[in-house]
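Hypothesis: this fold can be encoded by more than one sequence.
Test: take the structure tokens below, design a sequence, compare later.
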């Protein structure tokens, strides 16, 4: 495959040499051949003496990496992965050569963050390369499309006839592929590989169109040679992606995308946990989730008894789901609940909330299509609210009313706005902005869920219904650990994950389906669903160590977390304690052993 792809690139440029000077780069090497070490600056010159961070170093890496990604723009191509890998290894060597012992504590923190980030990105390149090999037989045309776009990036004129011939062969190749895959049988590739191939084909169509649009309006020969072959190739690729989805995966036209996912296995989970500085195995995290679940189930029984329903927590949950506002009244409810939470935390002086943050959050309403993936709501500076629309069928309206009842909403409006994600975002843009490169869901989602822990403990829920609303979500966070890890370990199917959410958490089936689809078919990282509860448990352990022990006040604790940046919680701990990390630091904090 490698030599074939580069052979295509040479062929596409071969007939055009006469149209360009023999050395039109005037001594500069071709982009793909320049040593990656040339891209790494003298890092020591970017480190300010006594600086409390490595902001200039991190920003230099970020800008250079992003420029390479814009240049090598074919997703997952062999050349993209090779050049990124070379760049990352050059940076690792340069970081290792920095005089580490002379760095201040905050600068050491950034050194570890950047080195861990680059190391993990290199591992992800290797993972992507392995996945490319798994689907190579399903997308043999990927090298052809990549070579067209990547040859354009070298700035050499194109050989029109050669490129037209490649596109004609591509269309014939796709036809042969479909003939081989048409018969149903047990020798078909795994569903996850088929879906990956369909997605890659769609990406390649975008690359092919971008390539064509670059030339066709100003190069008359290009249009003469390429217009029909490109049109035929695009049509073949689009039909092939549709064929993979509908005929091989079984997705009917007009149906939602099947929930397939792409498990990363035990080895992949270990690598991702190492990157997040979580010194536990998946099995240990599953056991911890079960312990948290047991606490939730005991509290649910208390709620049911307080409602006069014995130990029947599902009956209690059903009563809560039926308590919703009338159509049209949801925005007013969310607004009132948002300011209620703001008043609760500011009156108790639990965290700094700038008036600017209070006055700049916004609200939008989610479309019916979006609600299939996010049946509740999402947040940040704009809280995106789910509620029935007039275009939904009757059953859909009733489902959305139940899912967005008063008590579920009250339990999570503060998660999305203040003191949750909106307050985080406000600080992220103003304090340590270079650390956004290292953003981790264990900090992002862990912080918002930590506030659910904190608010529960200090009396935010006033009634059994309000406690039940909070317990639904807390149980759901436990369930996310269980279903996502078991899925990625190859133990559970998506359908088993949906059944688990219905039976163990009390989801309606449509919300359980939306949550599983969001987890496995979207762009979330494999550990994203684990991060909510585990990040909150880490912050709870840190609160016990620093606040309950009297070493730090509650407000200082929260403010310093926000101002330190979105980093792994083990390094939040080092930052709050002003620890000067040794160069050989490895994750070792056993936060699950800390009793709250």
């Amino acid at each position: 495959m490698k030599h074939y792809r580069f052979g295509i690139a040479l062929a596409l440029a071969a007939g055009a040499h006469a149209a360009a000077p023999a050395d039109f780069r005037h001594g500069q090497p071709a982009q793909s051949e320049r040593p990656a070490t040339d891209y790494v600056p003298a890092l020591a010159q970017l480190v300010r003496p006594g600086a409390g961070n490595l902001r200039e170093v991190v920003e230099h890496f970020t800008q250079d990496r992003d420029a390479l990604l814009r240049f090598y723009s074919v997703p997952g191509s062999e050349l993209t992965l090779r050049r990124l890998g070379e760049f990352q290894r050059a940076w690792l060597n340069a970081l290792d050569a920095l005089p580490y012992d002379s760095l201040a504590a905050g600068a050491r923190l950034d050194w570890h963050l950047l080195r861990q980030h680059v190391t993990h990105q290199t591992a992800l390149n290797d993972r992507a390369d392995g996945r490319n090999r798994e689907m190579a037989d399903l997308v043999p045309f990927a090298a052809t499309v990549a070579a067209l776009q990547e040859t354009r990036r070298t700035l050499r004129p194109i050989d029109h006839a050669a490129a037209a011939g490649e596109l004609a062969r591509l269309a014939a190749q796709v036809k042969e592929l479909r003939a081989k895959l048409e018969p149903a049988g047990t020798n078909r590739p795994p569903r996850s590989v088929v879906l990956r191939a369909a997605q890659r084909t769609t990406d390649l169509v975008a690359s092919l169109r971008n390539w064509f649009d670059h030339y066709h309006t100003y190069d008359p020969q290009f249009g003469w040679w390429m217009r029909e072959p490109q049109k035929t190739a695009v049509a073949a690729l689009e039909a092939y992606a549709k064929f993979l989805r509908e005929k091989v995966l079984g997705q009917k036209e007009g149906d939602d995308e099947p929930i397939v996912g792409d498990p990363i296995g035990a080895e992949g989970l270990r690598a991702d946990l190492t990157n997040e500085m979580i010194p536990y195995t998946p099995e240990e995290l599953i056991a911890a989730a079960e312990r948290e679940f047991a606490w939730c189930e005991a509290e649910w029984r208390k709620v049911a008894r307080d409602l006069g329903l014995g130990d029947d927590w599902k009956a209690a949950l059903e009563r809560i789901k039926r308590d919703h506002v009338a159509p049209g009244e949801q925005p007013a409810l969310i607004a009132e609940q948002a300011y209620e939470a703001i008043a609760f935390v500011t009156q108790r002086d639990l965290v700094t909330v700038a008036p600017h943050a209070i006055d700049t959050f916004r609200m939008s309403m989610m479309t019916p299509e979006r609600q299939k993936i996010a049946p509740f709501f999402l947040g940040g500076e704009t809280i995106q609210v789910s509620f029935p629309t007039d275009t939904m069928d009757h059953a859909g309206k009733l489902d959305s009313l139940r899912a967005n009842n008063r008590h579920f909403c009250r339990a999570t409006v503060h998660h999305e706005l203040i003191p949750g994600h909106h307050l985080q975002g406000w600080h992220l843009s103003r304090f340590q902005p270079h650390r956004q490169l290292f953003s981790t869901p264990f900090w992002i989602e862990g912080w918002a869920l930590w506030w659910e822990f904190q608010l529960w403990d200090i009396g935010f829920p006033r009634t059994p219904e309000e406690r039940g609303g909070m317990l639904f979500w807390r149980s759901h966070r436990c369930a996310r650990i269980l279903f996502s890890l078991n899925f990625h370990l190859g133990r559970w199917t998506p359908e088993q994950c949906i059944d688990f959410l219905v039976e163990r958490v009390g989801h309606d089936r449509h919300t359980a389906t939306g949550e599983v689809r969001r987890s496995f078919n979207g762009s979330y990282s494999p550990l994203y669903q684990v991060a909510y509860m585990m990040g909150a448990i880490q912050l709870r352990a840190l609160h016990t160590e620093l606040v309950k022990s009297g070493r730090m006040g509650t407000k200082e604790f929260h403010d310093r977390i926000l101002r330190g940046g979105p980093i792994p919680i083990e390094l939040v701990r080092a930052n709050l304690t002003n620890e000067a990390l040794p160069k050989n630091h490895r994750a070792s904090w056993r936060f699950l052993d800390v009793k709250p």
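The CA atoms of residues 55 and 588 lie 26 Å apart. The chain is about 65% helix and 0% strand.
Hypothesis status: open.
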